[in-house]
Design goal:
By secondary structure, the chain is α+β, with helices and mostly antiparallel strands. It has a domain of 263 residues. The strands form two sheets. A ten-stranded antiparallel beta sheet has the order 8-9-11-10-5-6-4-3-2-13. Strands 7-1-12 form a three-stranded mixed beta sheet. Helix 6 crosses helix 8. It is globular. The chain starts with 6 loop residues before the first strand and ends in an 8-residue tail after the last strand.
């Protein structure tokens, strides 16, 4: 295929009449209970007793289909740095409901958009770890665990301009990664040691989109059994294990960067695998030395490092219609779509957005009905056009 590469797609939106209080930075305000209350009241679709809020994205990634679930602890945990930021930190009951909501929404999208040649379907979640001061550039605007459910029309992507391949937000696992350039093999070996029955490691064309060539170099797994496997609790346990393995790997690596010859980090999920696969691997330890030496001599480089692991993990449908899971470290500011080579540029254009809004809202209301029927929440009556 000609013109393979990341795409930059333009998405119109309706400007939000939101005033940031004087003396606050936008990302400080977006983490406030006041702003999250406004989000629920103006864009909320559904809420449940587990504080899982389904809402439409006012500043979305796609006007074809776009919504999110957020674990809204803004009213119960006022310290933004103390809120759960990854699925492994969720209480068991909340995680069970979260998984059911994810499964139903993904199934809904696949039924609504059955043709993999026409539509890119994805669901992705991100760790919003408190690794920097809250006002630092690049800190996510809402520091709570949330998931994105997005559909792109592939015709729109094919017609879009090619994006700058040097854009630092395009996570490819190689060029822009501190780690995989040195440790791709040991990283793959460590993740391969996980006991996975449903998720099958894959590489090559099956793990990427033919239009963009992304994701590049990231560990990927095929979901054997497709959408039916998402209805199996064992799939979600394996999905958690991939995240746990990712966290263990980067905790062990940063421990070595910080302190030479560090042992197995406390509270590791797979301590035996860390000791066997990582702490006796020369490539792993050599890469840690390279990063440590650069940190000592380059203040700007050291300041940019996330000393706690941050992740973006997603499920997407590939060109053959198979479901693929992939995971990446979270680079500064990169959006969930950029793992797949889709750079979203938002432009304020109320009239262009309002042409798309009725169809978008009807789809979200149909999805909401599906979740209510499954006893996964109750309707939010908003002040906007969501109803």
């Amino acid at each position: 295929m000609d013109n393979i590469g990341p795409r930059e797609i333009n998405i119109p939106f309706r400007p939000i009449p939101l005033e940031v209080p004087e003396g606050m930075k936008p990302n400080e305000f977006f983490n406030s209970p006041e702003n999250l209350k406004d989000l629920a009241e103006n864009n909320g679709l559904l809420i449940n007793d587990e504080d899982l809020l389904l809402y439409r994205k006012a500043l979305g990634h796609s006007n074809e289909f776009d919504c999110s679930i957020i674990y809204n602890t803004s009213q119960s945990i006022l310290n933004p740095l103390g809120r759960p930021v990854r699925r492994t930190q969720l209480p068991r009951k909340v995680r069970g409901v979260w998984n059911r909501m994810n499964q139903i929404i993904f199934d809904f999208m696949l039924n609504l958009y059955p043709d993999p040649d026409r539509f890119l379907v994805l669901a992705g979640e991100a760790s919003l770890d408190a690794t920097w001061p809250i006002a630092s550039p690049g800190v996510p605007s809402i520091r709570m665990l949330h998931n994105h459910f997005i559909v792109f029309d592939k015709k729109d992507l094919a017609c879009a301009n090619l994006a700058d391949v040097n854009d630092p937000n395009l996570t490819d696992g190689g060029q822009h990664s501190l780690f995989a350039a040195y440790m791709r093999n040991v990283y793959s070996d460590f993740l391969s040691s996980l006991d996975l029955q449903i998720l099958k490691p894959i590489k090559g064309e099956s793990a990427s989109l033919s239009l963009t060539g992304y994701p590049q170099g990231l560990p990927s797994w095929e979901v054997q059994g497709g959408i039916d496997s998402l209805k199996n609790i064992d799939f979600w346990k394996e999905y958690d294990n991939i995240l746990k393995g990712f966290i263990d790997f980067y905790r062990a690596f940063f421990a070595q960067v910080s302190s030479r010859n560090s042992g197995v980090p406390n509270d590791s999920y797979f301590p035996k695998e860390i000791e066997k696969t990582l702490l006796f691997n020369n490539c792993f330890l050599s890469a840690a030395k390279k990063v440590r030496d650069k940190c000592i001599n380059d203040a700007k480089y050291a300041s940019a490092i996330r000393w706690q692991p941050a992740f973006k993990q997603l499920i997407f449908r590939n060109d053959q219609g198979k479901l693929i899971v992939t995971i990446s470290q979270n680079s500064i500011g990169n959006a969930i779509t950029e793992l797949l080579g889709v750079v979203v540029k938002r432009s304020p254009d109320a009239s262009a957005y309002e042409e798309k809004e009725p169809a978008l809202i009807n789809k979200l209301l149909a999805l909401r009905s599906r979740l209510v029927e499954a006893d996964l929440g109750r309707v939010i009556n908003t002040n906007s056009k969501v109803n």
